[in-house]
Design a protein that fits this description.
heterodimer; A: mainly alpha; MetI-like fold; 13 helices; B: mainly alpha
Chain lengths: 326, 290
């Protein structure tokens, strides 16, 4: 069984380039046969056909189909109108889910941006900039699953009075003698924030890298002129650097928002959405696999799409503007 | 930036003024590395030690480290097989979208045809579509034609999901190649396939490298797609799936969990350190046009 897959992978790796090469050559022959004019018309379609057909099968058609399913019942047999959507916005469990996503959206995005900007600005002023950045950026290379394990261990809880093996509780106990160790992931007042911290740990590096690139784009002359005029570093940051970086900040914020809306792995691994930590993507998974309710699962997915559509429109507008400017 | 402008603050005042800056920055860096460090140290500690005292105690004498945890998860914990599975899933899922996206990007950049712009806008729009929107119909399709629980299905799915971003990134790069370069090749009688294979692909290596790293990391670290299309079969489970089911079954079995998590991190970390430049470039290209 397993050796079959290794063989298949090798075949796939060898066959795909050869197949694509042959495909381009054969379609070129076909194009040459039908005459130069017809060839110019046909050729582009040959070239984009593999990608476009994959996109239609795996993305375009499923998206449309899911929207249709969201108006149907659990087994996709009867039309139920807006019933699934009504459920999403009235069921108490779903309201907790929506609240949690809002918490993620606000805290994750804001803290990633602020910390990312802070680190970008601070590290810009030191000689060990690239080394410092590696420390922050490193978690980007780690899977959310591994990050989940790492942070479950960080949050590990032992009853008060016993030796704490979790870093967070041990650190706080050492620092504040009166601190009572907490079960961060089980306590309903802390567990959502505890999860969001993991997301922040993973994504601040992303914000930092892009903001830092934006920061380097600001002309040194502008800052120098302000300093000569006697402006303090803090005033320079808020009055010059921040406004100039607004476009970059918007881009980072959009990317963070798209990703935070879809957050799944961290919650799945750390709490599986129990104790009031469920988010949209986890609920969709549960509706799909545990409750087998395809109507509700589709409606939840569609809600995610609706939340992302403004970002999609922004991207398209930005793309159009870029094309016009060359 | 401040350090270069020594006109206002000079000498000791400047050195002292910079102290808080270094302290804050270094503290942040330490805070950011402690979680991973704790995992790494713990994965080499014997079970009895992990469960009774904090990982920082490992640095006190007498030292006691072991490779037992790794030996266990690799042989009996299914991690060895899962590592192979992750590799078998990730490598084709990285190379397939790149080949397909490259010729599509070339067509979008250097050929004229009706619907070119609307089709490309569709690609740009698809970059941000939540994959959740596709899971149910694709799973049903896979069930119908027998592609669930095996690698062919997941290769195809990752390829298709990776395409929008891949086409976008490569088109941005390929369309900025000098027009004269392509045109002079055409005048010399080179056909489109020749120009693409001999000229465009070799010059696009930097963009392709960034994309390859990005897609590889994405697939390697993916949990959702594997959970859905591979089902619960341990035979084909990649490491992310195996570890998350270990979390459920072992709960506090830190000696195994830490070792397993570190095994899953090794390859991405090696890729990251070896090809950091391309990785950062890929991240930048994904969000801003350079």
């Amino acid at each position: 069984m397993h050796t079959n897959y290794i063989l298949m992978a090798i075949v796939a790796l060898a066959v795909i380039p050869i197949f694509l090469w042959a495909y381009l050559m054969i379609t070129e022959r076909v194009a040459a046969r039908v005459g130069k004019k017809a060839a110019t018309v046909l050729r582009p379609w040959f070239w984009i056909l593999p990608a476009v057909s994959l996109l239609i099968i795996f993305l375009v058609y499923p998206v449309v189909h899911t929207v249709v399913l969201s108006f149907m019942d659990a087994r996709s047999e009867n039309f139920v109108g807006l019933k699934n959507y009504l459920y999403i916005f009235t069921d108490p469990g779903m309201l907790v889910v929506l609240r949690n996503n809002l918490l993620w959206l606000v805290f994750f995005t804001l803290v990633c941006l602020v910390l990312g900007l802070l680190i970008a600005v601070l590290s810009d002023r030191v000689k060990y900039e690239s080394v410092a950045k590696v420390f922050i950026f490193l978690p980007m290379a780690i899977s959310s699953v591994a990050a989940g394990v790492i942070w479950r261990f960080m949050y590990e809880f032992r009853p008060a009075g016993t030796t704490q093996i979790g870093t967070v509780n041990a650190f706080l106990t050492a620092l504040f003698p009166n601190f009572v160790p907490k079960a961060w992931l089980f306590d309903r007042s802390t567990n959502n924030i505890a999860l969001i911290v993991v997301g922040i740990w993973m994504w601040t590096g992303f914000a930092m890298v892009i903001l830092s690139a934006g920061l380097k784009g600001i002309s040194e002359d502008v800052l120098e002129a302000a300093r000569i005029d006697g402006a303090g570093e803090i005033a320079i940051f808020f009055k010059i650097i921040l406004p100039l970086m607004m476009p970059t900040i918007t881009v980072v914020a959009t990317t963070l928002i798209i990703n935070v809306l879809k957050v799944f792995d961290i919650v799945y691994v750390m709490t599986n959405g129990n104790l009031g930590t469920e988010v949209i993507a986890n609920r969709m998974y549960k509706e799909m696999f545990n409750y087998r309710n395809y109507g509700r699962a589709s409606a939840i997915a569609t809600l995610l799409l609706l939340a992302i559509i403004p970002v999609m429109i922004m991207n398209l507008k930005r793309f159009n503007a870029e094309e016009k400017n060359g | 930036m401040a350090s270069k402008s020594g006109s206002v603050n000079t000498g000791w005042k400047r050195v002292l003024g910079a102290v808080p800056l270094h302290v804050v920055l270094i503290l942040i860096c330490i805070a950011w590395s402690i979680p991973s460090l704790g995992l790494l140290v713990s994965s080499f500690r014997p079970k009895s030690m992990i469960a009774t005292n904090g990982w920082w105690e490992a640095f006190k004498t007498p030292f006691s480290f072991t490779l037992e945890n790794y030996a266990y998860v690799l042989t009996r914990g299914n991690m060895g097989r899962s590592f192979m599975n992750s590799l078998l899933i990730a490598v084709p899922s990285t190379l397939m979208p790149i080949f397909i996206a490259a010729c599509t990007a070339y067509a979008f950049a250097w050929m004229r045809f009706p619907l070119r712009k609307p089709l490309y806008l569709m690609v740009v729009a698809l970059i941000v579509v939540p994959l959740q929107m596709t899971l149910i119909p694709v799973l049903r399709l896979f069930n119908k034609i027998g592609l669930t629980g095996n690698f062919i299905g997941i290769w195809l799915a990752h390829t298709a999901y990776g395409l929008p971003f891949a086409i976008y990134l490569l088109r941005n790069f390929i369309s900025q190649l000098p027009k004269s370069l392509i045109e002079s090749a055409q005048i010399d009688g080179a056909s489109h396939p020749t120009i693409f294979l001999r000229l465009v692909l070799p010059t696009s290596i930097p963009a392709i490298s960034s994309l390859a790293i990005f897609q590889f990391m994405w697939v390697w670290n993916d949990l959702l797609i594997a959970l859905i299309y591979l089902g619960g079969t341990p035979d084909v489970a990649p490491m992310t799936v195996t570890i998350s089911s270990m979390v459920n079954s072992y709960g506090g079995g830190w000696e195994y969990l830490t070792a397993a998590a570190f095994i899953s991190m090794v390859l991405p970390l090696v890729v990251f350190f070896a090809l950091q430049k391309y990785f950062v470039k890929g991240v930048l290209a994904g969000s801003i046009k350079e």
